[in-house]
């Protein structure tokens, strides 16, 4: 048994929904594009933004942790999301979480920095297409107009009846990342696909 | 929906926040030094002021920061927010009320050009009236449709059915206009008196013609004046009450959020002018109107339609302007949050596409609002004023101009103001024989001259004193106003009435705005409001079209300029100044003795009914409304509300301005429950949370239990098993061999930082800082009042890192609780808490053979009791998967909890299932878990506790530290109340008949005979099960002084029996704990 388990591929929270997401994407003719971005590395980082660790961690990651609330900073393949005045979510390539965590811990030295691997805590839905904003407006009370929520913005808020982290992607029309708790991902997918009915 | 400005994230909907009670109530430095009274004061006493109040709030669905807010408890306005630890702000600046209509010089009215009302032309001769069918004069075969004109599409004919008769109408008709075009005016019978009632208005204010739609989808109580005609429509008249559909509504309904700089409500002249002013400023503008096309009252008067069309096209083309047609803004809430309902496919009938929602609720958050909601004409209380054929004057004008329909052939007009003259002239021009205009004013002025010039007799200083006609009006009696002598009678099938105009102030009033009575206008008009709203046009009581347009344009410009945009003056039509003679304020008109004078047509409330109310001593319109039901119907008194106030004022002999109006509450017009529910039904109504193993459970026939939002396997019945059999089997497997369950739903919180141990010592009743790395401790968390709040295990991962588990339903609450103490009371502690509930999947492997199963899959793990003792954890690989294995038992058996990444959980689970097969490994659910733990007397927080239970009550004094100087709850254990000997203790109960099952919630009494009520009860059953291990039923219960009653016999009333039970220790199985180590 152990042998087969070793080779079993990891399963993402929405692995069973991939077909439905792809079908909706095709049927919408570009109006909405929905897909799960699986297994992204996600680290929750807590540190004193004014302390020595902030700079050291920034240097080690080659990225300045954003200080302005609800903004995002990109550096190489890493994205840092502001979650709170002393809290960030680092998002990186799948599989890099351990290496990232040790880089941060090393850089922080003896400073009180907390790093928690939360890669499986949430999964990421890509929501793009010409009607992406309209689709999210079915259940998100935030103003997602580019004037209010343009490139570089992120927010923790409620979408439908679950909490999410929303990220406006950088390129115009590139849509959004919706990070959702894994246990709610199935519900949110059902909700998004139902909301998209009109665009299919 | 309030907006609460988070100090970090800015304004967000209040739903994102969590309330934390009064701020600046610090945790006492040394609780032990306080007297009981001082401690009780800290625990239980809070200020409750009217006005500014400092409160703690958490941005729970956002950045999770706790902060302080000063809220005015009377207005709900948030006056200030500041970060935790900062002091109460020195100054507070409440929002000031601003006038509904600031007067500015940019509202100058354009003086010249354009045409006013249509010029009068020839008058038709009289025709024979009344044929007794409710149809108008002229016979059934003649159409009431004008040969030309109107905004209907004469090339598109629709067939519809009303009360079983088939008719033809056109696209652009309402059901009401199509009925009128077919000579049908009677469309209902009244609710109490059964009197025939006719189409009275041409809009949402309709009190009479409220119909049942039968097909294509049944819907009750829709005003025929608001139902757009479509092919195949089937409707029927109603006796005042509709019928709910018996079949589910197959249509989609949905909701969207929208944001704008400016929301304009109403696309009549004022609203269109406001939108035109704002359209090209770059501001985001929403213009919402309940009609299929913009124009508002201009559609009914037929004026300036070219301007309406051009402006509408410009708005449609403007980038940031959204025009919402068929959209009724029905509610105005806090912080410029407005709700609207858009009727998207109703008008398409059976042809409505299935994938488009039939109705959509718009949740609009507007920086600024301009209300251009117009005015409703009001009626007059004269004798027999309810016969079919009595119609509001402006409505008749709209039917002629907008729908190309003559609402009758021979009309009398009864008015107290100028506006009905234009209606009379338009009707005359369209071919209606307007016999007389009856004006209560002694000197009606220039409009009367115009009417006379058109050949219409004007009776100034006169009033209508009565009407005749059963199915339809046949004649109108007129006399000098206030007199009975000098009566004249006119044959007529139509009586147009105008008792003045009520500004549509509903939304303004809902916004918190105040109204004032304008004596010159004779109506209530918007006064001031604390929200960012202005009112423009006739909603302000402005009667003159030129002024209405100018006001609208100025309001639109002001709104977007206040938001930082620049706009240009819009093109407005030239409007000829019209003569104006002040209206006369009239409510009741004396008439034929004994004839009812209706105030509220829909509720059949008359002047006499209101007189009975005031005669009974009622002095407020709110009270007369409840006493008589005036204003409570489907139309919410749109045509009758102010009239009712006026009548009551007359009855009481006071001025109407003193009396005021009844309160305007949302919704402005009825909104269907289906629209309000939207997509929040069925599976989307409440999210379900599932674990990474959910599909396996489904595939293996699990039945599920809802725990919070989680779906947890309840039990896994095999062929033909009921719950009892399945649970006994699962329990036996766990006690005798090996069983496993999905425990992934347990809340998990990572607690990191140099002060993590100190923090957990404050949070838990027992000591956590002494826990060694690699070890696990059970802990209990209490509220400051000492009552148990949550329990779980604490794993020490490293010197400065712990993993805390919580009960499934409490994970978010515990994290909130931790953050509240860290952020507000102990910010100096260097600790961070992060939820990792879904970062780990957890499998409980339970039973005497669990060691063999684990050992076979974890070759690197030394599984012997010496190497891997109880309450220790090890990092290893299980089935080749990186795992954290904990030796924890919630059953008393040898057991492990294996934690892995949820991405690999299924592989682990299947490996366990295969490795355990030789031992008959059995998946089990929550019911078995509950039985196993109850046999061991382990309480479930929230089932065996209810917020009034201390750890000592649960028999867990061992988990309450006596060494720690303080922890949350400690001081309360010295309160007199918590040391009472008769507190309820958690004990076991054994029914004397081992097959008798005690339902949970059953009370316990001392005696075998029930005394007379009130029956003194000793406590109640909290958990009750059948035990495979004990071979009998048993229960846990909270019993007064229970531990001192062990061995006593008590009685449990079950149905009409008193079941004898014996009080026992809560630990009924393996009290020595011999099975724990396998």
Describe this protein's structure.
The complex is a heterodimer of chains A (200) and B (1078). With 200 residues, chain A is α+β, with helices and mostly antiparallel strands. Chain A is built from 6 helices and 10 strands, in the order H-H-E-E-H-E-E-E-H-E-E-H-E-E-E-H. The longest helix of chain A has 14 residues, at 182-195. The N and C termini of chain A lie far apart (44 Å). The model of chain A is unreliable at 1-5 (pLDDT under 50). The longest helix of chain B is centred in the middle third of the chain and has 18 residues, at 545-562. Among the domains of chain B are: 3-94, Folate-binding fold (2-Layer Sandwich), CATH 3.30.2270; 251-377 and 504-575, FAD/NAD(P)-binding domain; 694-744 and 840-932, Gyrase A, domain 2; 747-838, Aminomethyltransferase beta-barrel domains (Alpha-Beta Plaits, 2-Layer Sandwich), CATH 3.30.70; 979-1078, Elongation Factor Tu (Ef-tu), domain 3, CATH 2.40.30. The two termini of chain B are 57 Å apart. Classes of the chains: A alpha+beta (200), B alpha+beta (1078). At the A-B interface, helix 1, strand 6, strand 8 and helix 6 of A face strand 2, strand 15, strand 44 and helix 21 of B.
């Amino acid at each position: 048994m152990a042998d087969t388990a070793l080779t079993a591929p990891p399963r993402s929270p929405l692995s069973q929904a991939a077909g439905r997401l792809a079908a909706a994407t095709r049927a919408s003719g570009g109006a909405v594009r929905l897909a799960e971005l699986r297994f992204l590395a996600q680290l929750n980082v807590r540190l004193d933004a004014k302390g020595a660790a902030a700079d050291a961690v920034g240097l080690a990651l080659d990225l300045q942790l954003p200080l302005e609330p609800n903004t995002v900073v990109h550096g190489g393949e890493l994205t840092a999301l502001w979650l709170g005045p002393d809290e960030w979510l680092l998002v990186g390539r799948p599989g890099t979480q351990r290496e990232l965590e040790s880089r941060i811990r090393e850089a922080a030295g003896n400073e009180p920095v907390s790093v928690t691997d939360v890669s499986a805590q949430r999964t990421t839905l890509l929501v793009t297409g010409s009607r992406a904003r309209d689709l999210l407006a079915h259940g998100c009370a935030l103003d997602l107009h580019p004037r209010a929520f343009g490139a570089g913005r992120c927010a923790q808020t409620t979408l439908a009846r679950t909490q999410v982290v929303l990220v406006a992607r950088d390129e115009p029309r590139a849509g959004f990342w919706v990070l959702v708790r894994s246990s709610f991902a199935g519900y949110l997918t059902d909700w998004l696909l139902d909301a998209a009915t009109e665009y299919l | 929906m309030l907006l609460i400005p988070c100090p970090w994230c800015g304004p967000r909907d209040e739903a994102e926040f969590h309330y934390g009670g009064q701020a600046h109530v610090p945790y006492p430095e040394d609780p032990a030094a306080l007297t009981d009274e001082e401690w009780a004061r800290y625990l239980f006493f809070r200020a409750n002021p009217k006005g500014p109040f400092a409160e703690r709030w958490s941005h729970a669905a956002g950045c999770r920061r706790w902060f302080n807010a000063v809220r005015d408890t009377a207005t709900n306005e948030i006056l200030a927010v500041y970060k935790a630890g900062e002091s109460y702000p020195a100054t507070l600046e409440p929002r000031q009320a601003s006038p509904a209509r600031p007067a500015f010089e940019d509202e100058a009215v354009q003086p010249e050009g354009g045409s006013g009302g249509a010029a009068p032309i020839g008058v038709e001769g009289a025709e024979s009236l009344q044929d007794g069918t409710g149809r108008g004069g002229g016979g059934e075969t003649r159409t009431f449709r004008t040969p030309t004109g109107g905004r209907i599409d004469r090339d598109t004919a629709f067939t519809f059915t009303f009360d079983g008769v088939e008719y033809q109408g056109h696209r652009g008709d309402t059901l009401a206009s199509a009925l009128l075009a077919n000579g049908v005016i009677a469309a209902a019978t009244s609710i109490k008196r059964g009197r025939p009632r006719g189409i009275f208005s041409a809009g949402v204010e309709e009190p009479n013609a409220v119909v049942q739609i039968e097909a294509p989808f049944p819907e009750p109580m829709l005003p025929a004046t608001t139902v757009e005609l479509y092919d195949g429509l089937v409707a029927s008249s109603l006796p005042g009450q509709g019928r709910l559909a018996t079949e589910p509504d197959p249509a989609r309904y949905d909701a969207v959020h929208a944001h704008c700089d400016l929301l304009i409500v109403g696309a009549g002249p004022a609203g269109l002018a406001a939108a035109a002013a704002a359209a090209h400023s770059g501001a985001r503008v929403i213009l919402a109107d309940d009609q299929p096309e913009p124009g508002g009252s201009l559609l009914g008067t037929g004026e300036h339609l070219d301007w309406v069309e051009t402006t509408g096209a410009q708005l449609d083309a403007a980038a940031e302007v959204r025009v919402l047609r068929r959209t009724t803004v029905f509610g105005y809430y806090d912080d410029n949050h407005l709700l609207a309902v858009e009727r998207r496919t109703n008008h398409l009938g059976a042809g409505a596409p299935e994938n488009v929602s039939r109705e959509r609720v718009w949740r609009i958050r507007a920086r600024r609002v301009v209300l251009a909601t117009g005015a409703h004409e009001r009626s007059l209380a004269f004798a027999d004023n309810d016969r079919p054929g009595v119609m509001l004057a402006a409505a008749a004008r709209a039917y002629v101009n907008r729908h190309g329909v003559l609402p009758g052939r021979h009309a009398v007009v009864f008015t107290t103001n100028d506006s009905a003259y234009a209606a009379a002239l338009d009707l005359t021009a369209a071919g209606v024989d307007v016999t007389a205009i009856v004006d209560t004013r002694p000197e009606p002025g220039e409009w009367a001259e115009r009417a006379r010039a058109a050949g219409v007799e004007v009776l100034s200083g006169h009033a209508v004193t009565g009407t005749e006609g059963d199915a339809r009006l046949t004649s109108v009696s007129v006399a000098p106003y206030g007199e009975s002598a000098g009566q004249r009678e006119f044959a007529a099938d139509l009586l147009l009435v105008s008792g003045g105009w009520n500004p549509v102030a509903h939304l303004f009033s809902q916004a918190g705005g105040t109204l004032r009575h304008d004596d010159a206008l004779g109506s209530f008009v918007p006064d001031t409001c604390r929200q960012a709203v202005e009112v423009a046009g006739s909603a302000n009581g402005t009667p003159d079209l030129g002024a209405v347009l100018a006001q609208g344009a100025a309001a639109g410009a002001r709104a977007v300029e206040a938001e930082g945009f620049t706009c240009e003056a819009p093109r407005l039509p030239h409007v000829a100044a019209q003569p104006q003679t002040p209206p006369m304020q009239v409510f009741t008109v004396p008439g034929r003795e004994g004839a009812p004078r209706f105030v509220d047509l829909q509720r059949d409330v008359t002047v006499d009914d209101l007189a009975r109310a005031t005669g009974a001593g009622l002095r407020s319109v709110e009270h007369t409304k409840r006493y008589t039901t005036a204003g409570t119907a489907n139309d919410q008194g749109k045509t009758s509300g102010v009239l009712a106030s006026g009548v009551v004022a007359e009855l009481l002999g006071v001025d109407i301005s003193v009396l005021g109006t009844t309160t305007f509450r949302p919704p402005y017009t009825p909104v269907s429950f289906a629209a309000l529910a939207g997509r929040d039904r069925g599976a989307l109504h409440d999210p379900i949370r599932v674990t990474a193993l959910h599909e396996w459970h489904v595939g293996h026939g699990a039945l599920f239990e809802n725990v919070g939002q989680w779906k947890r396997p309840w039990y896994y019945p095999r062929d033909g098993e009921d719950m009892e059999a399945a649970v006994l089997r699962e329990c036996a497997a766990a006690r005798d061999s090996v069983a496993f369950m999905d425990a992934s739903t347990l809340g998990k919180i990572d607690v990191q930082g140099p002060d993590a141990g100190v923090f957990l010592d404050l949070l838990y009743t027992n000591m956590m800082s002494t826990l060694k790395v690699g070890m696990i401790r059970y802990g209990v968390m209490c509220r400051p009042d000492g009552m148990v709040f949550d329990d779980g295990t604490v794993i020490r991962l490293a010197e400065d890192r712990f993993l805390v588990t919580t009960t499934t339903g409490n994970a978010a609450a515990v994290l909130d609780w931790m953050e509240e103490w860290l952020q507000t009371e102990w910010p100096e502690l260097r600790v961070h808490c992060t939820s990792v509930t879904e970062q780990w999947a957890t499998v409980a492997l339970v039973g005497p053979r669990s060691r063999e199963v684990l050992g076979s899959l974890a070759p690197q793990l030394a599984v012997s009791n010496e190497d891997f003792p109880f309450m220790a954890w090890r990092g290893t690989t299980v089935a080749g998967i990186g795992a954290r294995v904990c030796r924890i038992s919630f059953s008393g058996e040898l057991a492990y909890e294996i934690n892995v990444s949820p991405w690999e959980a299924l592989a682990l689970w299947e490996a366990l299932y295969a490795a355990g097969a030789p031992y008959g490994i059995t998946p089990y659910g929550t019911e078995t878990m509950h039985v196993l733990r109850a046999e061991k007397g382990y309480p479930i927080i929230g089932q065996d506790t209810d917020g009034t239970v201390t750890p000592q009550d649960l028999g867990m004094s061992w988990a309450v530290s006596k060494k720690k100087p303080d922890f949350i709850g400690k001081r309360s254990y010295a309160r007199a109340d918590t040391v009472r000997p008769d507190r309820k203790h958690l004990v076991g109960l054994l029914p004397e008949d081992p097959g008798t099952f005690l339902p949970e919630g059953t009370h316990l009494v001392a005696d075998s005979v029930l005394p007379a009520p009130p029956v003194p009860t000793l406590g109640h059953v909290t958990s009750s099960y059948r035990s495979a291990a004990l071979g009998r039923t048993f229960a846990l219960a909270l019993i007064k002084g229970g531990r001192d009653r062990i061995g006593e016999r008590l009685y449990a009333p079950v149905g009409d029996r008193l079941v004898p039970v014996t009080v026992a220790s809560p630990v009924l199985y393996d009290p020595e704990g011999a099975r724990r180590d396998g």
